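[Solved] Which block belongs to which protein?

Original post:
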Amino acid sequence: MPIGSIVNATTVIVGSLLGILVRQRLPLRIKGIIFQAVGLATLVLGMQMALQTDGNFLILIFSLILGGILGELVRLDERLEAFGEALKVRVKIKDARFTEGLVTAFLIFCVGSMTFVGALNEGLNGDRTLILSKSILDGFTSIVLASVYGIGVMMSALPLFLVQASLTLLASRFQTFFPEIIISQLTAVGGVLILGIGLNLLEIKLIKTVNLLPALAVVVVLTLIFLMGPL
């Protein structure tokens, strides 16, 4: 059972509810400085993760390029926006930043090394120490994110659970499919995506982070081909 993923999703929901309550009571200037603080912290997190590429920058670059091309070809951003709007209508949410909050929280919570390693450790040997530690961090982070983005952050708990629980269940059945090099490459690409989120938060440059999401799949394929050889 992916107990760690259940706990993690629960802490995000609870933290988001607290953040939404705080959001309603904050003056505009306080919201503004929180927004900037989140943006700066996101940049630092993204840089730390991106540097885990272990010097394989060509794979990182080509993963982002090919992933971005794929995202643009299928218009991933437009599809996700349409999904978010449809979900807003279905659950009767009027928050203008719902989809942005959902995507931002999902990326921050789901593409870090703690996500991969924590979920895999639970599946491989039943060790939940890392994923439970991540749950606590995500709970506090969701308070801050929800105070900026609102209920979209809370809704990210569902894809968060699905991703982590799937990793845990896959690891329990296919224990040799998750070598450390793939985890580090995924983390590096995820770090670049989070850097893009930070730039968007600070309104420095509009980065289509959603259309870059396929890079997470591309980097696995390129790593298997060029760094690990034939399986």
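(Second protein starts here: sequence line, then its structure tokens.)
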Amino acid sequence: MKEQSDSKPITGNRGEWSELYAFFRLMGDHRLFPCDADLNEKHDYAPDIVEIHRGADEKLVYRYTGDGRWEIYTSGEKKGTVSSVESASEADRLLACIQSGDCVGSFSVEGALKFLERLADDKIKAKSGDKQDIVLKVQDLRAGGVPVKCGFSIKSYLGSAPTLQNASADCTNILYTVRGISVEKARLINDECDKFPRKRIKKLMSLLKEHGASIEFEKICHRNFESNLIVVADSMPKLLGELLLVHYLSGESSVREVTEMTAARNPLQYPQGKSLYERRVKKLLEAFALGMTPAGDWRGEENANGGFIVVRWDGKLLTYHLFDRTELDEYLYRYTKFDHPSSGKHRYGRLLVNEADGSISLKLALQIRFITPRKDGQPHSRTKTS
């Protein structure tokens, strides 16, 4: 699986090769196969793909001829053709390689690179435009049969479970006020937690509970992130702060379970209770999935305006199209969890003492990762964070 030339081979991890696999498979299938909220294929319709752009690249276009072939155009000039059968075969070979136990870390796949060269491309991961990884022109009867150009985000389960929202020390940390303990006690708690670097967060939360401390949401640390959350809902900054706090205090990771636990407390005093918490959280997850980046200047636009393409663990490509927004929202709600990134790298999980006034604060990190659906179709049990 290594390049035979003297030049350094192009390498990538499983997630990056999975994106290329999805591209080959879409050319092989030339259809989008929708699914329900549990990643089971729905057989009632399968829209045809008539054109493909990789990411934000508008110069390189692949057009389906309708007779099992794809025409390749660069800057409007035809450069060649490949068949959907060839694309499907290359997808099968690349899938076998990705799933092989020999392919770990960063690796190269010579056959896939040679086929990519035939496609007038040299990138295993396309240049993304915000949330969209691939742009498809789809002929869908639900849109009147008129081809519609849509951007899709690709998420793959071929490697480790993908993230919905990555942590960033500069963007996604949330600040809390800590009350009920002295400055000296805060310093002692920090010293004790330093002895358990791998379990620092769990130890910190345990000690805060033991000493009767209270933790209250103060603010979203990054101004743009706060503004973007307000676009989703006026109360979203505080709601997200409450959700994250429940996660860290309880050890529960499942977004759905954390939402239900938060709704039971009803810290925002929503009159509709659980149903409103659930609707708000689904809209937040949808925003993360389709358009919002925490540091960006977001106004509610959906860059991945087609939806999600999911590479299932068995290599099957399934789609949550925005015509089926209810299924997408339910999938995001059922199969995401709060995750703990490195506390050192992301600068959180340490009690911060203000020497001027003796106040104590704490930063907690937001990261949301997908949960791999169980292959037997049964729901997951409660998901605890160690």
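Accepted answer:
You had them paired correctly. Confirming on the second one: The chain has ten helices and 15 strands.
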